[in-house]
Amino acid sequence: MVLKEATILVIDDDVDVLTALRLLFKPLVKEVIIEKNPSNIGAQIDKKNFDIIILDMNFNGLVNTGNEGIFWLNEIKKIKPKTDVVLITAYADIDLAIRALKEGASDFLVKPWKNEKITNTISSLLKARKSNASDKKSSQLGTSAIIGESEAIKDVFLKLKKVAPTDANVLILGENGTGKDLIAKALHDNSNRKDKPFVKVDVGALTSSLFESELFGYKKGAFTDAKEDRVGRFEAANGGTLFLDEIGNITLGQQVRLLTVLQNRLVTPLGSNEAISIDIRLICATNIEPKVLADEQKFRKDLIYRINTVDIVMPPLRDRGTDITLLAKHFISVYADKYNKSQFLLDSGFISKLKKHDFPGNVRELQYVLERAVIMADSTSLKPEDLVFSSIERQTSKASTTTMNLDSLEKNAILTVLEKNKGNVSKSAKELGITRAALYRRLDKYEL
Ligand SMILES: Nc1ncnc2c1ncn2[C@@H]1O[C@H](COP(=O)(O)OP(=O)(O)OP(=O)(O)O)[C@@H](O)[C@H]1O
């Protein structure tokens, strides 16, 4: 961000300082607001998003310890943790400066200031904000936006790294909400086609007539509603990647149409006589289990072979051990930022409750549950009661406990006992009737 796009708030009880800074910044920035009374800070920052806040450290002129400044700095950080705060004081007190920086101030200036020094400080902070924002964007590209460190997700990353640069067709399998969309995009972003289009079509949601017109396109007049030519998704993805989601839900007739295009690498728009040759990399995804896909009454074997040069199976969240905590921390931080809340501390009971849940809706369910928890939380720490699992998901969760295997039962028993004993391994081992070493082995096994 450049200086002239910035909105700045100056808070000082000295009217001369306020006037001087307003005169200095008015011609340089988009907007400068001055405030004499620090008690109005909350109201000011609720009203507007400031890029920089310049805050005096000594408000009543009697106590020159800078404590008032640090107090107000903390108040600002509670409401808008991302705002850059520059503190000013009349006393060149290095200890105070360091304390202010530790408490989250972005910089520190000593009165009387040189105008050039203060504008340079503000300009560099604005530049740093810009580069942080663009770093964030680029990290969304590779696999860095896909969070996970469990053995199960590491296998996925390995496969992704190997397969992405090839032109192989990939079938991504996995329950709803496991991250199939993210993997499809990562395959494209890490391929030689990354600068070409990535086109996604939810084929499971298309009626028969829409399936044809969406995928193959049409010429004006091909049917009653065809008022002008329309490019189909195959053609739109030319040179790039076509991602067909919910592939397991298409009819046998649609499967034949798809197979023909994939075999000949040609599409003919409805109402046209001319076939267009297409060069696409195909990625498909489905939440249907492989054994159902293997049922020839529902799915053509020749199509399965064609779309499934390589398959990537997304593990359900309940099998991803420590990823639950890792993802939880990520989502909590994202939502704390989004809803302008300070970062939360996580109560140990909160983490145990998360780990015990079965997550039938996988990462998507975790994401929604945490967004709700962040919105509803009354304090700065998240507690078990802040976690409310949706009754719909709970129903599914109950159903799935009937098919629970011994491992899940053992894992849940360990978690319950650990929670009861506040994480004390010796007490928990005793209660479970096993040795400490045996408990540690199991903690390792279940990545707890
Ligand atoms: N490993 C991960 N790291 C960060 N976010 C994730 C991860 N996995 C999934 N998500 C998030 O969870 C949500 C669901 O993921 P996604 O849509 O990719 O799942 P899906 O398997 O394609 O679901 P569906 O089968 O319902 O289409 C998205 O918001 C996605 O960003």
What are the salient characteristics of this protein?
16 strands, ATP-binding, 5-stranded parallel sheet, alpha/beta, Sigma_54_int, binds adenosine-5'-triphosphate, Helicase, Ruva Protein, domain 3, 448 residues, HTH_Fis, phosphoprotein, 3 domains, ATP binding, Rossmann fold
Task: Report on the architecture of this protein.
The protein is flat and about 80 Å long. The chain has a five-stranded parallel β-sheet with strand order 2-1-3-4-5, with helices on both faces. A five-stranded parallel β-sheet has the order 7-10-13-6-14. The chain has 19 helices and 16 strands. With 448 residues, it is of the alpha/beta class. About 4% of the residues have low confidence. The protein folds into three domains: 137 residues, Rossmann fold (3-Layer(aba) Sandwich); 165 residues, Rossmann fold; 128 residues, Helicase, Ruva Protein, domain 3 (Orthogonal Bundle). Helices cover 47% and strands 14% of the residues. Helix 14 runs antiparallel to helix 17. The site of adenosine-5'-triphosphate has 16 residues, from helix 7 and helix 15.
